[in-house]
Design brief:
The complex is a heterodimer of chains A (230) and B (377). Chain A is an alpha/beta fold and 230 residues long. Chain A contains eight helices and ten strands. Chain B starts with a helix and ends with a helix. Helix content of chain B is 56%, strand content 20%.
Chain lengths: 230, 377
């Protein structure tokens, strides 16, 4: 059984008089330890799909099962608990809490789990070490570069040992060199820590670091032959 | 998570400081208004106000116009239900409402010692009883006028030597100056010899105050001056009737202050939440529950209000304690006193207002669609 299963998922939005359907009866599987990239033109529903898998948005129809839990059936509070235990989210714009240090930002998800303070400290230190920012632990986001901020964001996403990490354009706001560093880091985390990843990007070079590449177009995944045409 | 709230407040220091200051000023005013209200309530209610009668000249209000024969006390004492009578000569520097009214009560020093709930903080009773121009001064007057034992104090045509400074369990007492009856009668001129302003009547346990009051007025109707006898509380409320209306109005000012704090803290919290709506969405994406998000915002608004409210309340308590403020009219004074109940109500109101002010923004932060909030710039 796949770790993440989407079956017949559809999502529509009303935009004025028009109804937009970014996801139309989508089904897909992601196995444990897999690194999946999701590409496609703007407005094709990549981020919508990511948000549905994360449980921060709800589909109009279909089921989304992650690690055996149908997230579409959970209440908002249950979803919050589920995310705290199962999901790591890497934002495009880092979204660190400005009043907290790098250490405190990474520590946040662990405060939601039943851990002793020693266990918490150990996890935060390991996560910061994994992203190479142990020496920046006491710095505030404004004292970090964009790349460092994103690495703190990555540490925050992995610190609770989630089943799945989703990344929404994780290199979208970084320069080429920093983007490269973040790609290497994501690849390493997937390989060394066996973290299952679903990454949205519109850059085919970045998508190539994933073990499986999916392309969304007009609410559907492209078939192998359609991909070849592209 | 409390450290997150504290750091958020610290990060926005200017906004926090302005809100806290506004809340402090409003709660300061609220406590002051409350202390006036409490002072009036103390004066017009309670056992002393209910179980003591004041015999005053009929249709007279200012103490200078009430002139009753001193020997009325003998007749009053004979009426059933009367335990004791104390003839009192009252002199005041101002019959109109004033924040620095000086009221002299002249009475038999032994009776003062026996009947008044006062305790000397400095000086001694013997000097007060033996020296003709000796006076004992309430500590509020002493603190307001900088008086101490041994000082000579003159006001108008009166000049007394301070023989003691007293405190009292009845705050309004602390705004009085006691002298002997004879001193006050004769110093003011021969025309007040044998006359007093009022008779204070102490009742027996089982006496009905209204019935005794009626009996006193009936018994003295045949005398040279007609009287009007009322319970002490009713007498003081009537004496201070102009101020009572004003204080009743000030009561609304107190509510307005609470409304001001509510509006101020609510505005700050709404702005703060709107500025950081994306931050709350990020927290919920990480796994913070909506209810926890709600609590974070409520904690923030309550802390703002509590810090401001406690500061304002504390400052008001200090000012009331050190200032010895009182307002008076026609010889009756309302003392502004810091009280525990006022401090507690100030603190509780701060917490309550903080919670109310935070409800709407807290709901907004907790229920905002996460995806929409994450799209905010």
């Amino acid at each position: 059984m796949a770790l993440v299963e989407l079956r017949g998922v559809s999502k529509s939005f009303r935009k004025g008089e028009e109804t937009i359907t970014p996801l139309d009866n989508i089904s897909m599987d992601i196995d444990a330890g897999e690194f999946v990239s999701l590409m496609g033109p703007s407005g094709t529903g990549k981020s919508t799909l990511l948000n549905l898998v994360s449980g921060i948005d709800r589909p109009d129809s279909g089921t989304i099962t992650v690690n055996g839990t149908d997230v579409t059936k959970l209440t908002r509070t249950q979803l919050a608990d589920w995310r705290a235990a199962n999901l790591g989210y890497i934002f495009q714009t880092h979204n660190l809490i400005p009043v907290l240090t790098a250490y405190e930002n990474v520590e946040l998800p662990t405060l939601l789990l039943k851990l002793s303070s020693a266990q918490r400290r150990q996890r935060v230190e390991l996560a910061l070490e994994a992203v190479g920012l142990s020496d920046r632990a006491n710095h505030y986001p404004r004292q970090l570069s964009g790349g460092q901020e994103q690495r703190v964001g990555i540490a925050r996403a992995i610190v609770a040992h989630p089943k799945v990490v989703v990344a929404d354009e994780p290199t979208g706001s970084l320069d080429a060199e920093t983007s490269e560093q973040v790609q290497v880091l994501l690849q390493r985390l997937n390989r060394e820590l066996n973290i299952t990843m679903l990454m949205v990007t519109h850059d085919s070079n970045i998508a190539s670091i994933a073990s499986k590449q999916l392309i969304l177009n007009r609410g559907k995944f492209l078939t192998r032959s359609e991909k070849a045409v592209i | 998570m409390i450290s997150y709230v504290l750091k958020t407040l610290w990060r926005h220091r200017t906004r926090t400081l302005l809100t806290v200051t506004g809340a402090a000023v409003a709660m300061f005013v609220f406590c002051f208004v409350g202390s006036v209200q409490e002072g009036l309530n103390r004066l017009t209610t309670g056992s002393d106000a209910d179980r003591t009668l004041i015999v005053f000249q009929e249709n007279r209000f200012c103490p200078t116009t009430s002139r009753l024969p001193e020997d009325y006390s003998r007749k009053i004492k004979e009426i059933p239900g009367v335990r004791d009578v104390m003839p009192i000569q009252v002199w005041t520097n101002n019959c109109r409402a004033s924040l620095d009214i000086i009221v002299f009560n002249g009475a038999d020093p032994n009776q003062i010692q026996k009947t008044r709930p006062i305790k000397l903080l400095a000086g001694n009773w013997q000097q007060f009883q033996s020296q003709r121009d000796a006076a004992i001064v309430g500590r509020n007057v002493a603190s307001r006028r900088g008086l101490k034992v041994g000082d000579q104090f003159s006001i108008g045509e009166l000049s007394v030597r301070i023989a003691g400074v007293f405190e009292s369990t009845v705050p309004s007492e602390e705004n009085l100056i006691y002298t002997s009856l004879g001193f006050l009668q004769y110093t003011r001129g021969a025309d007040t010899a044998g006359l007093v302003t009022q008779h204070e009547v102490m009742l027996t346990e089982d006496a009905d105050p209204d019935r005794v009051a009626a009996a006193i007025d009936a018994a003295l109707r045949s005398g040279s001056v007609a009287t009007k006898t009322r319970r002490k509380g009713a007498f003081q409320a009537s004496t201070l009737s102009d101020l009572v209306d004003l204080i009743g109005f000030a009561h609304w000012l107190g509510y307005a202050c609470v409304g001001l704090v509510l509006s101020l803290v609510a505005t700050t919290t709404v702005m703060s939440v709107q500025d950081r709506i994306k931050e709350y969405a990020v927290l919920q994406t990480i796994g913070v529950r909506p209810l926890t998000t709600l609590r974070l915002v409520l904690t923030e608004s309550t802390l703002l209000c509590l810090i401001g409210g406690l500061s304002g309340t504390l400052l008001a308590m200090i000012a009331l304690s050190l200032g010895g403020f009182a307002i008076g009219a026609e010889g009756a004074t309302i003392a502004f006193r810091p009280t525990l109940s006022l401090a507690i109500s100030g603190s509780l109101i701060s917490i309550f207002v903080g919670l109310i002010a935070g409800i709407a923004p807290a709901m907004q932060a907790a229920t905002v669609p996460i995806v929409n909030a994450l799209r905010q710039p």
